[in-house]
Amino acid sequence: MQAVTARVLGSTGAELTAVYVPAEGDSVLQLAEMVGGSGVPYGLPTSYPVSGNSPVAAAFRGGAPLWLGPAELAEYDLTGSPDSPGADPWDGAGKPPADVSLGVLPLGVSGRLLGCLVVMDKATDAFDADRRHLLELHADQVAAGLDAVAARVMAQTERRSLLGPGLDTLRGGAFTLVLRTGRMDADAQVLELFGIAPEEFDRRVETLLERTVPDDVPALMSIVEPGGLPTAGQQMSIRIRRPNGELRWLSLRSRVLVDAGGAPERMLGVVADASYLRPTADEVSIVQRLSTALAGATTIRDVSRVVVSALRAPLGADRVAVAELEADRFVVSVLDPPEPGAWPDAWRSEWRSEWPDAACHSMPTLESVLRAGHVALWPPGAALEPDLVGIGPGGLAVLPLPAEGRIVGVCLIGWDEEHHFGPEERSLLTATAGLVGQALVRAHALDAGHELATMLQRSLLPRKLPSLPGGVAVARYLPATMGLEVGGDWYDVIPLSDGHVALVIGDVEGHSAGAATIMGQMRTAIRAYAVEGHPPDVVIAHANRLLLGMETDLFATCCYVDLDMEEGIAWFVRAGHLPPLLRLPDGSTEELPVEGGPPLGVAEDGEFPLTEVGLAPGTVLALLTDGLAESASLPLEDGIRRVRAALAAADPADAGQLADDLLGGAKRRDDDVALLVLRYDGMRVRPTRVRWTVWRLPDAVMHARRFTGRTLRSWGVTEELDVALLVVSELVTNAIAHTQGEVRLDLTLAADRLRVAVNDASPRAPVKPTSVDWESTGGRGLLLVEAMSASWGSVPLSGGKQVWSEITLEPGERLGAAEAAGADVRPNGEEVR
């Protein structure tokens, strides 16, 4: 041990070094180790009382280094405890020699004092500024080594026995770096650690970087980049690869010296062997368990779940996200915890959508890490974009997942409380990243059918569902995990006019690309029929005739719901599909007895009766396909009961989590699954509507303006009255002049908007002129409507079309409208009918 310890401060030229640690209830500082060079005629006492007047006790109590020349030493008692065998250490002289200087440096970590480091040299001015800086860095190394070893073995080893291993970890030396030129002077101990012969060292920093493990180069480079210099006392831990292939752990501490102008000039540093930082048996076992679990993961979601279970608890992390990298987007496969409130807004909105992904360009810092391909660790307070800071405010680790020479994904690990990254953690994360990247590629290869299903579903199903007034709709789709896995399940949410919304769920027979293609055609057709304004039974009848006319033998089941969001009245049409499920506000569930018709594509003269059901606010409507309720081992009746039990137990406050609860945790599915859930909340402020039929008379436009004026004044709308009258004039004029049949004027007052709509019997959409001759007497109607409206457009209706315009109202004007209509108005402007 003396031979090892003698090398600790060899580069400083010290004659004698020693370490004292508290003992006997922290009342005494006990000598733990002392090393003197050859020919040293003096030593140090074995102990000092903490309350005494010795330099060791004074530095320990004060927590600051003491640099004492012969004159200063005369003021202290150096004889130690009276019963100490070394009570007179100065060879009987009773005082130190006249040419001895003493340095005493307290050893502490995170505010805890571990002892003192004593350095003695035979010179009156032995400790100049540079040597003081280096000795302080050495003291930090001693303290860090003792603390690291103590943390691992304190449970079974007493304090004194820690000093040997602690000092042993400090084998090393010092270096000086001139920041302006990049030239470095390193002693023999530093070069020996890196495996470089002194005669081969060219004093270039790059020579040391070549021996560094690539993942640790960014950390090491920070000490030579002026913008990234470490703070005083900061320890860096790096790994190097020696010429013989040996992997060695090193600990680095450095201090920057500035010139008279305050600019960085030189850096002093100490490098020490840090073998105590090598991965422990526990860390190795984590990697082994992860490797074993990944071997059995066959899908991307399975791989992601294995990563979460293997890393979150051992690392004490608060969040773990795993995402694939596809083109320029992150496709999220797992966020843990799954609660939306645990994640930043961008990740939350993407995850709660049907196909969670996010653009790489929205997080440039993350994108740059993926380009570099190395593990990145950010401490608290790092300058990151909000979408990353929110994942790990106390610390964030980003693991690019490499495989086959490219980055295939990314894993993000975040902590809420302040987290300090150790070098062993970097090693663990680097090893993990390689394993996970390979597993992702393997899952793609083993699960090609799943990828095909995902691609088809992304192109044929809606990426996001619309926001609904008075309710929340969410949907989930899971492909089968057996067979080709390309199914025909679909869902859709279609906003309609007059506050209605259509909910659709269906299933095309079979599992094939043909089934998926028919599914896409049926979804498009039903959406088109619904937007045209057909009643629910007519929509399904049209879809039935369309499927019969296609060149296919496949049939489809479907459930179509037309829901009035204002009144809560729903009209159901069921074509061979599973009946809808309801969760009532009191928590009870029921299977709606909706009268059914035949599947689509079976009978040309099939009838599809309507069933009317009233929904109270707080009701949850669930539409599902048979893959969720039926399998080879689960009868349909039992499956429906299981889904109803899950629906009754779920919390309707979070519709997305409720949908996830209904899906359950089954990993093997014989059939694909589609689920559409609507939580009906009801509309607290209902729109006000009136309709008026325009008679085809010479003064029809005048009557339409008078009707509009009376109506808007009764609603309290006065500021935008002239604008509304102009829009009514132009739309009614166009309808009467260019169409035949009935013309109807609809006025709707909702929130802060007035909607003016004119229905006519012509299917031809209005065409806005590209240019108008100013000498002409017409052709400016639609240009005026566009100029006066916040938005305008036309939609097809059954046998005709509707041209509409929306006019924005001032908040005070909307409040006056509510008062004029006789509504009870709250202070915030909310109406209660």
Please explain how this structure is put together.
By secondary structure, this protein is of the alpha+beta class. 32% of the residues lie in helices and 28% in strands. Helix 14 crosses helix 15 and helix 21 packs antiparallel against helix 22. The termini are far apart. Keywords: Hydrolase. This is SpoIIE family protein phosphatase.
Share of helical residues: 25-40%
Separation, N- and C-terminal Cα atoms: 88 Å
Strand content: 25-35%
Query: Stretches where pLDDT falls below 50 for ≥5 residues?
Result: 1-12, 153-170, 227-233, 351-355, 821-833
Silhouette: elongated
The beta-strand count equals 35
Structural class per helix/strand content? alpha+beta
Number of helical runs?
A: 24
Instruction: Report Rg.
Output: 39 Å
Strand order in space, largest sheet: 3-2-1-6-5-4
Main sheet? 6 strands, antiparallel
Mean pLDDT: 78
